[in-house]
Design brief:
The protein is mainly beta. The protein has 2 domains: about 5-155, UDP N-Acetylglucosamine Acyltransferase, domain 1 (3 Solenoid); about 160-193, Ubiquitin Ligase Nedd4, Chain: W. The protein is built from no helices and 26 strands.
């Protein structure tokens, strides 16, 4: 076993957990779950058997990664983030196995108490503000907040807000990394030195 799990954590046989990953108090990792290397799963985290977590992911306390949710590398999930996996849940009409997928791109941040409605894609390095409800796709590098979440800006890979228009064309430099970002027709390209 190349990962660490607190004695109160439950890790079912058949879970695939990468080296260096730490699983804290009262967490449950189901058989079939795939978790990359060097992740940190806080207290009371649940990972379903048909969920996937990339490497170097930080999942704070009280987060459930349900079946159909895929987190890319370097994703950050704040405390009590909620993922759904059924669009129209009913207790009387169970929909087990009829789950919609949710993809969270590399380096994205999802703030505390945010809710991500299933069936959508969160782009790489996107930033979801705390308490937001994501009910649609989020572009790469977008900063979204509110209920429902709406884009109010752009974020760098280092987590700094970029001074650029929401649409059209523009350029900005990240004050932390020094990388330059270019907005072309409302889409940000990968940063350049």
């Amino acid at each position: 076993m190349n990962y660490q799990a607190h004695e109160t954590a439950i890790v079912d046989n058949g879970a695939d957990i990468g080296a260096g990953t730490k699983i804290w108090h009262f967490s449950h990792i189901c058989s079939g779950a795939v978790i990359g290397q060097n992740c940190s799963l806080g207290q009371n985290v649940y990972v379903g058997g048909a969920a996937a977590v990339g490497s170097d992911v930080k999942i704070q306390n009280n987060v459930s990664i349900f079946d159909g949710v895929v987190l890319g590398d370097n994703v950050f999930c704040g405390p009590s983030v909620v993922f759904t996996n059924v669009n129209n849940p009913r207790s009387l009409y169970p929909q087990r196995g009829n789950y919609s997928s949710t993809f969270v791109g590399e380096g994205a941040t999802i703030g505390a108490n945010a809710t991500v409605i299933c069936g959508h894609k969160i782009g790489k390095y996107a930033f979801i503000g705390a308490g937001s409800v994501v009910a649609g796709d989020v572009p790469n590098y977008a900063l979204v907040v509110g209920v429902p979440a709406r884009q109010i800006g752009w974020m760098s890979e280092a987590g700094e807000r970029l001074e650029m228009p929401l649409s059209g064309n523009g350029m900005a430099e990240c004050s932390v990394s020094g990388l330059n970002y270019e907005l072309i027709d409302g889409v940000i390209s990968s940063p350049k030195e």
